[in-house]
Amino acid sequence: MKLCVQERGPQVYMVVVEGEVDMSTSPQLRDHLTPLFKEGTSRVIVELSGVSYIDSSGIATLIEGLQLSRKHNIRFTLAGVRPSVEAVFELAYLTGVFEMVPAVED
Asked: Domain tally for the chain?
C-alpha cells in the first residue's frame, strides 16, 4: 500500500491511498490519518480510487477516522471509491454513514 498526505488548502488535508488496505496495512493508514484530526483542521479527504481491496480492518480504521472527525467537528469525506470497494461498505451498511463523493473535485 502507498500513502501520501497532501495539504489541499488552508486546513484541508487529503490522504491518497493506493493498493490493498488490510490487516497488515491498515495500521499504516491509521498512523497517517490520526494526526490530521487536530485543532485548526476543517476537512479530511481520503482518496480511495487507487484502492483495489479493503477488508474489515481497513473499514475499522476509516470508522475511527469518522469518529475522530465527529469529535473534533471536522468534515470527513471518502472520494473515488471503486465499485468493488464500495460493495464492502454496502455489505456493512455503511454507505449512508460516510460522506462519499465520486471524485475529489466533487
From this structure: 1
How many alpha carbons lie under 13 Å from residue 43 in its C-beta half-sphere?
A: 15
Q: Write the single-letter amino acid at 82.
A: R
Which residues lie across from 14 on neighbouring strands?
A: 6, 45
Question: Is 106 contained in some domain?
Answer: no
User: Per-residue pLDDT tens for 30-62?
Assistant: 999 999 998 889 999 999 999 999 999 999 999
Sign of the torsion angle spanned by Cα atoms 15, 17, 21, 24: negative
Domain presence at residue 15: yes
CA dihedral over 47, 30, 91, 18, signed as positive or negative = positive
pLDDT of residue 50: 97
Closest alpha carbon to 53 in 28, 20, 94: 20
The CATH number that applies at residue 15 is 3.30.750.24
Query: pTM for this structure?
Result: 0.94
